Structures are given as structure tokens and as C-alpha cells.
Amino acid sequence: MDMFQTIRRLSELNSPSGSEEAVGAAAAKLLAPFVDEVRTDRLNNVIGVRRCGRPGAKRLLLDAHLDEIGFLVTGVEEGFLRFSTIGGVDARMLPACELTLLTEPPMTGVVTALPPHLQTGEEMEKTIPLKDLRIDVGLEQAEAEAAVPVGTRAVYRTPCFRLGREQICGKALDDRACVAALLRTMELLAGRELDVDVYVLFSAFEETGGAGATTAAFGILPDYCVAVDVTHGRTPDSGKSGTFALNGGPVVAVGPNTTRWMTRRLEEKAKAEEISYQTEVVPGHSGTNGWELQISREGVATAILELPLKYMHTPVEVIHTADLEALARLLAAFVTDLGKEAPQC
């Protein structure tokens, strides 16, 4: 599998929360060769299953989410679009950003930016409130109202490209880089004998509360689950607390949102496979689908495995290819012999 091409294909599709159809169709097609069946449910979750062929086999669910943060048009004023956000958007990122509006056909817009010549010294030191920003689509009022209905969604307009030799930059790598990691995991497992049924969930709605993981897990009824998501990569301005080195390996989350034996198994497999890994202490809600998966029905044994990513929820998210490959190798080792080695409960 060409990981860069896979990530670029997924990254450049425009699918904010609630509009996962495009990326879901692409992900389902990429997953199909590695599973016995794949389907898309009512919420646009993509669910694939590789059965091990053993009667009464336990079910392992591997999750990464499809959706990305985005924007929602709420009105038009003098040809400029008012908008709100879908998911956790940082208003500091927005002035002068290029956006793709998901009209038919899609349109390009730019977020308004007051030139420094027209700002006071005080204004230059402040973030512009979201309510004061507009999207410019180059149209007059009547044209904009006709072309861009209220409720139109938008996303960052950013290509996916190589950054240096081993890093990849683009939008929506949270969490489509992890979708690619799960595809790579299933590729590594191809031909291996398994003793659990492996369900791969590419979930919808994570950025707006986890509805996709909640409903999919309820239907699958897994015995174990691993939520695979991104965590904060270290940068010069970030400090070391709560951030993790790129090219330092995947990050194993530890805390009440995880099951201790699942976490220990990840750590033991990493050591056995000589895979470098990092540890994140998560004292409460992890901010991932791990929470929704853990509390599904009567509860599910849960692990959270993370990919370091710089500049989360910006148009220029960055991951390291070595971390992605290491995460896939670790997850493949975790899956192998899970049915035999897991505690019987």
C-alpha cells in the first residue's frame, strides 16, 4: 500500500461531520480487499468485518473516524456569508483562509481579513471573533443567496503534500491518517490466522460528539475495542507536557478511559516487536471515540492508540510516516492471538 497516496486521497475529500458520504465511499473501497464484507450504515459509518471462522469467536472493533471539522453557512449579508463552525475550529486560523463550499458544483471562498494598514494597534493584538468573520465568494447579494443556500457546509481548501522526506501535511489528517493506519493494519493481517472476528469501523460524527461510534458499537456488540485517533505532536512552541515527538512511535493512552490489560498488552507487544512507543496519561474523558466505545451497552474492554500530529484542527496538520507504520505494526501484533491471550471474563 502506498501510504502517501492513500492519505492524500482521503485527505483531499471534503466530508465534515454529517457529510461523510464522499470519504466513506472511498474508505469502503480501500477496505474491501481486506475484509469478508463491508457496508455503510444509516449514519454513514463504514463497517467491515474479517471473520476468523471459529464458532463463538470474540469480536474486536478497531475504530478511526472519517469526519473533519468544518463550517456551516448561516446567512448572507451584502454578498458575504455568515457562518458557524462544525467541531472544534480555532478562530485564529481563519482570516485569509481558503475554503471549499460544498455547493453543486463546489465553490471556493476566502475568509475575510482586514489588512494591517486598516487595523489599530489594539486590533492587531486580538483574535477576531467568529461572529465578525465572513466568507467572501466574490458574488453580489442575490447571486450569493441563490448559489450558496443557508446550511451549506464548507471545509478548509488545502492540498495534501509531502513535508520534507518523511512527513505528510494536509487537512483532515485528524483522523484520516488513522483510517489509513487501519487499512495498513488489515493489509499486514492479510494471510495471518486470527482467532477473533475483526470489525473495522470508520466512524462518522466524531468531531460533533461521537454519534457514529455510539450507534455502530451498539449494533456490533464488540467484546474488545481499540480507538485509533491522533494526539498532539510536539512543536517548538508547545512545550513537552501533553505533546509527543513525531518519529517517536505511536502513543498508548493510560487512564480510566482504557482497560488496564488492554493497555498492558499494547505495551508488551510493542516491546516484543521492538516498536518504540510513547505513553499519554489521560485522567478522564480521552476526547476520542474511546469513551463512546467503552460505555456501549454494558461496557466494552477498551484501548486507545494514538498517532502524534502537529497543528491539530488547522488546515496544515502534519504526521510522520514512520509513526503511522509503527502504529499499524503494533496494532497487527495486538490483534494476533488476541482470543487465546485475552483474559477470560
Can you give a write-up of this model?
By secondary structure, the chain is an alpha+beta fold. The protein folds into two domains: 3-68 and 171-341, Aminopeptidase (3-Layer(aba) Sandwich); 70-156, Elongation Factor Tu (Ef-tu), domain 3 (Beta Barrel), CATH 2.40.30.40. The protein has ten helices and 17 strands. It has helices at residues 3-11, 21-31, 121-124, 141-147, 173-189, 211-220, 260-272, 290-294, 321-335, 338-341, and strands spanning 37-40, 46-50, 59-65, 70-77, 80-86, 98-101, 107-111, 135-136, 153-156, 161-163, 167-170, 197-203, 224-232, 251-254, 278-281, 301-309, 317-320. The strands form three sheets. Strands 1-2-12-3-13-16-14-15 form an eight-stranded mixed sheet, sandwiched between helices. Strands 4-5-8-7-6-9 form a six-stranded antiparallel beta barrel. A hairpin with a 5-residue loop joins β6 and β7. The model has no long low-confidence stretch (mean pLDDT 94).
Total strand count, please?
17
Question: Could you spell the SSE succession in H and E letters?
Answer: HHEEEEEEEHEHEEEHEHEEHEHEEHH
Using the coordinates shown, work out and report the CATH topology of the largest domain: Aminopeptidase
**Structural class, judged by helices and strands?**
alpha+beta
Q: What count of helical segments does DSSP give?
A: 10
The level-1 CATH class of the largest domain:
Alpha Beta
Strand order across the largest sheet: 1-2-12-3-13-16-14-15
Q: For the record, what is the CATH homologous superfamily label of the largest domain?
A: Zn peptidases
Query: Biggest sheet, open or closed, and with what strands and sense?
Result: 8 strands, mixed
Silhouette: globular
**Count of structural domains:** 2
Low-confidence stretches: none
Question: Radius of gyration over alpha carbons?
Answer: 21 Å
- On the 0 to 100 scale, the average pLDDT is 94
The percent range for strand residues is 25-35%
How does CATH name the architecture of the largest domain? 3-Layer(aba) Sandwich
Distance from N terminus to C terminus (CA atoms, Å) equals: 37 Å
Bin the helical content: 25-40%
